[in-house]
Structure formats: C-alpha cells, structure tokens
Amino acid sequence: MKSHTAPRIAVTIAAALVASCATNPVTGQRQLALISESQEIEMGRQASKEVEQTIGLVDNAPLQAYVRRVGMTMAQSSERPSLPWSFAVVDDSTPNAFALPGGFIYITRGILPFLDNEAELAGVLGHEIGHVTARHSVQQYTRSVGGAIALGGLGVFVPAARPFGQLSEQALSLLFLKYGRDDELQADGLGARYEAMGGWDPEGVPGMLSTLGRLDEAAGDRKGVPNWLSTHPEPLQRVAQIQPEVQKLKSGRSNFITDHNALLQRVDGVIFGDNPSQGITRGTTFLHPPLRFRIDFPTKWEIANSPQQVVAKAPDADVFMLLQMVSKPQGRTVQEVALSSMQGAGLRHVEGSRTSINGLDAYVGMYEGQIEGLGNVSSRAAHILHNDVYYLVAGLVSPDQFRQIDATFLGSIRSFRALSTSEAESIRPLRVDLYVVRAGDTWASLAERSGGAIKPATLAVMNHATANSQPTPGARIKIVVES
Question: Is the entire prediction scored with pTM above 0.85?
Fold first, then answer.
C-alpha cells in the first residue's frame, strides 16, 4: 500500500465515527456502527451471490418455496421487515445455517433431516433472523475494524473454510464472524419470539438446540467437519437458558403449530451426504462420477469433501491426505508440473520418479517444508494426469513419523484409478426415506440400509431418540437409503 493513502483513510474513519452512531432496531439503544444499513445490505447481497455461485442451491423448487415461506413469515413480523429478506437451501451436506448482513439467510440440506418438525425449522431460521435484526454481524464487523478479520490462514487445514474456498475475503469474513455468548442468547430469544408471533411453537428453538447438541455428541470426534456448532457454540447449555422465555411466550396459548408431518414430506427424498455431482464418499473410498476417478483412503480415516479438495485425516493423529486438482499447471511433463506445483506450495523436492499408476502417467515424490498450522512436514505426493487434468494426491505428516506412515500414503496413491462409464453411471446418492418401523427393527439394523453411511446413534438423533433406545413399531421415521 502506498504511504500517501494513509491520511485519507484516517479522515474517512474519523468521519465515519462521527456519523456512525445508530439505534439498534431490537434494543432501541444507540451504538457504534461503522456500516450503514445500505452498506450492510450491499455487503450481504454481494456475499450471497458468491455463496450461491460457490456452493449452489438445492434443485428442489417445492422445498425452496417451503423454507422461504416459513422464513418470510417471521421476517415480516420482525423489527426490520423492509430488508430484502431471502431464504434458501444450499447444496451442502453438513448441518449448518448462517445469516449474511442485510437479511440473506441460508440453511444447508444437511441440517434438514435432523429437524423434527416445522417449528424446529422456524427455530433455526428465527435464530438467524435474530442475528440480522439485532445487527450482530454489523457490530462484530465494526469491532474488527472494518472487517479486517484474521481468519487464520484459510485453506486445507482450516476445516470451516473448506466448502467456501472460492469466496472472497470479505464474504469469508462475513460467514465466519464469531458471535459472543450474549449475542447467541439474544438470537435464541428473538428466534423464539418470531416463531411464536408467526404461530409456531417456540419450543422449536430449544428443540433444535437439543437435537444439534446431541448430534455433535453422537458423531463423536468430528474435528475437521464444519457444521452449525462451529459458529453457534454450546447449544445444550443454552437450552435451559431459553426455557423461561419460551414458557412466557406460551403462557395462555395452546394453538401453536408444530407440524411434524409437513417437514417429513419436504425432506423425503432429499440427498443425504455428498452429492455425486461433486464427488461422493462410500466408507473410505472417494468416487467422482463426472470426473471419472476413484481413490481409496486408509481404513477408519475421516473424509471431508468440498468443491475445492478432499481431505482425509487419521483418527486421533495429525496425519492428513489431500486430493485436489492442480490449478494452472506449469510445465510440459508430469514431472515438471509436480516440481512446480510443490515448490509453489513451499515444499522442497527430496526425491522422486516418473511412474504409471493404473495406466495413468504420474510422478511420485517426497517433499519437505513448512505448512502453516502444522509446522515442519514431510510429504509423499503424486501428480497424476487423468483426462487432461492433473491431480495432486498428497500425504502430510511430521518428519519424525514419515517412515512409519509412508507405506500407507503410497497405498492410497496407488489406488487412484479411472472409472469406466458404466461404473460412473451406477453411482447413486444416498437419500432420506420415510419408513414405518417394524417389530425387531433396531437403530443398527436400520442404519445398515445406508451401506454404513450413517451411524446408528446419528440415525437415532435424526428421529429425536437416544442411541440406547429402540425405534417404536408403527412409528413413521426418517432413514437413509441408497437410491
């Protein structure tokens, strides 16, 4: 930055401070806000365009209309009804919901199967509306000095950023603003109030908090998987704190909407987990039908898929593998591409050789260097040419563990192969299916219908049950099946 721009910036900030005290729409109190409402809306509008281009919306018009109707009903009763409110379901498998400034609110298809009824859907949307009406994101953005938020080296080893790797710095900043505990509690209360005003049972807020909290417990060690809980902490602790407000809202009324069946009908058939168009995980095998390849990662490793890369992590260890396309490959041969690519990543070539992996031209090498967040690393990496595209498959580990794990890295690297047309066409997504429980069914037996894609404990949580319970014969529940 050129030095003569500094005085102009200082004057701009000073002018903003003088004119930036505004009344909070929810509290009625005056507070500092460096961002006007028109700026807030424009920031949210630009970020929403990037979100929809990067992640994409679920191609299900009735579902989109349903979510929009529930959200708009509450937004129109809020303190900021004139905002350009929008509500949409994005095509992401992780349980998540987020609000952009100006009223642009998104939930993922991944959260929908874990909501028990329409009131819980209203609870999620109402909570996010509360963040907007109380201008929480604007206040956090102001505290961060105009949005200069340290995102800690967004990239392969910052899990929450993986699905959003193509977003601009400003859009990422807006998505990953951290709300304080007071903001979260206020959004819970506002969400309950908005849904009660719209006719929904305000129990939807503690209900969805309980489910999402138990989902995190059922999933075990989900470190590295982005979800609603990464930006909305401590849901179970907040359940008790919202109950007095819920009981106050319910006092003297008994005609609230819950509507379990309405939500069931909308989630029936929704894709569960990865969408094959973006690559799909089966156990520890990753398959990409459109790009026509597959790779096997080590047994029991956790896999996170995103539009930019696939990351696999060893259980309880800082040992990683990643798969991604090589952007703008430099070089005429696979070896030249490999050396240029790894040098650009800050890793030094130690040794390697050109080879063939299942009939595909490849270069497999060893590299050393430093990666932010991991420190010194050793890497076994392959650059593979498939259908005129270069793919990087790399294992990363601390140098002192490299010898013990190198054979595991090489095993996965050598499993990379092309998919035939028939193999690619046979790959189908998992979907949510409605099922009437029969005598003898258990959560474990029902989970088997997914081919191991969902744990019995997680399936139980999906149906508002505990892992040690048994499904009730005759009950209509959600299961996951191969389509």
Answer: no
Q: Could you report the per-residue pLDDT of 447-470, keeping only the tens digit for each?
A: 999 887 888 999 999 999 988 899
What secondary structure, in 3-state letters, does the chain show?
Answer: CCHHHHHHHHHHHHHHHHHCEEECCCCCCEEECCCCHHHHHHHHHHHHHHHHHHCCECCCHHHHHHHHHHHHHHHCCCCCCCCCCEEEEECCCCCCEEEECCCEEEEECCCHHHCCCHHHHHHHHHHHHHHHHCCHHHHHHHHCCCCCCCCCCCCCCCHHHHHHCCCCHHHHHHHCCCCCHHHHHHHHHHHHHHHHHCCECCCHHHHHHHHHHHHHHHHCCCCCCCCHHHHCCCHHHHHHHHHHHHHHHHCCCCCCECCHHHHHHHHCCCEECCCHHHCEEECCEEEECCCCEEEECCCCCEEEECCCCEEEECCCCCCEEEEEECCCCCCCCHHHHHHHHHHHCCEEEEEEEEEEECCEEEEEEEEEEEECCCEEEEEEEEEEEECCEEEEEEEEECHHHHHHHHHHHHHHHHHCEECCHHHHHHCCCEEEEEEECCCCCCHHHHHHHHCCCCCHHHHHHHCCCCCCCCCCCCCEEEEEEEC
Task: Give percent of the chain with pLDDT exceeding 70.
Answer: 80
Query: Which domains are assigned to the chain?
Result: 38-267 (no CATH), 276-426 (3.40.1000.10), 430-482 (3.10.350)
Cα distances from 234 to residues 84, 95, 97, 231, 237, in angstroms, run: 30, 15, 15, 10, 5
Contact between 434 and 463 (Cβ < 8 Å): no
**At 336, is the pLDDT very low, low, confident or very high (cuts 50, 70, 90)?**
very high
pLDDT band for position 229 (50/70/90)? very low
Which of 310, 313, 319 is CA-nearest to residue 377?
Answer: 319
Six-digit token pair at 354?
């050109």
How confident is the model over 246-250, as a mean pLDDT? 95
If pLDDT is split at 50, 70 and 90, which confidence band does 270 have?
very high
- Of 119, 121, 70, the C-alpha closest to 256 is 119
Amino acid at the residue 151: L
Question: pLDDT higher for 276 or 237?
Answer: 276
* pLDDT tens-digit map of 118-158: 999 999 999 999 999 988 877 665 554 433 333 322 223 23
Gyration radius of the chain's alpha carbons: 24
Q: Which among 401, 353, 407 is positioned nearest to 376, based on CA atoms? A: 401
- Average pLDDT value for residue range 367-384: 90
